[in-house]
Amino acid sequence: MRNPVHFLFLGIVLLVAACNHSGNQAIEQSGNDTVTDDYGRTVVVPATPQRVVSLSPAVTEIVYALGAGDILVGRTDFCEYPPEAATIPSIGGISNLNIEKILSLSPDLVISGSMVGKKVTDQMDQMGVPMVCVVEKPKFEALFDNIRAIGKLVGKEQEADSLNELMRERVNALTDLDSNRLTHSHANTLTPSTPKVYYVVGFGAGGNFTAGGNTFINDIIRMAGGRNIAEDIDGWSYSLEALVKEDPDYIIVRREDSATFCGMKPYNDLSAVKNGHVIGIVSGTLDLQVPRNIDAVLFLRQRMNK
Fold first, then answer.
1. Which of 123, 144, 134 is nearest to 55 (CA)?
2. What is the pairing mode between strands 52-55 and 72-74?
3. Are the C-beta atoms of 140 and 223 separated by less than 8 Å?
4. What are the C-alpha distances in Å from 135 to residues 115, 128, 142, 162?
5. pLDDT tens digits for 130-156?
6. What is the pLDDT of residues 221-243, one digit of tens each?
7. Which of 50, 24, 304 is nearest to 136 (CA)?
8. pLDDT of residue 32
9. Residue 266, preceding bond cis, omega within 30 degrees?
10. What pTM does this model have?
11. Alpha helix (H) ranges present in the chain?
């Protein structure tokens, strides 16, 4: 019913709240070789790292977007974008990291994301390998902070600023909103005619999971012109009863899960399924906090005729 990527993402989203104890704190650089990461750890890092291991699909994608893919010497099994990332040696999964494999790659910097907990960071500290945590955060606007934070770490600050500028221009063109109001997109324009949207994270016997109002995914849905029916929940668990009662106009689901979802009761009785308003979206464009989030906004706006 659901592939390993689904379980990876579900694990990520369930841990995001725990990882956010430092709020929207971006990495702050003090001098050339000391940073404070999203766990509040002070880490001494090389000014120009040459051998970087990424423990996060989002980190890997951003590193490539900054033109620094050539310094990556390790990545996880789930770092599948861009396609060229597949040529980099894998250190295995995320929840069961192979520390020995990471050390065998002789990294001078390890960058992790939301799925890597304090136990692993402590292990890496004991091994003398600099490890910095850049986690996914609740607001869309934090994507720009994470890009700049990673840009600082890999010596691509100017490239990060340029990428952020281009992204803001794209968002402004899509939403006709000032860039400073990104996280409030359509906040004052929701009307009874605004389409109701439900995003499928998990479904079936294991329970129903979606993105609540305290997520960057909720921001993306609003930017695309919809109203997230789960915007009032704090977390990821959503009841089947609430889903049936709300009966959303559009349902967003990972493309590889679309057929299964639409063919399963009671989901196939929802209006969105009957009306052909189930939007299959490419994995990673919406469920990871990455530059492709803007592609997700464009895609959803087109599909919802906004």
1. 134
2. parallel
3. yes
4. 8, 21, 10, 22
5. 999 999 999 999 999 999 999 999 999
6. 999 999 999 999 998 999 999 99
7. 24
8. 54
9. yes
10. 0.86
11. 4-19, 57-65, 99-104, 118-127, 142-153, 157-175, 216-223, 240-246, 258-262, 271-274, 293-303
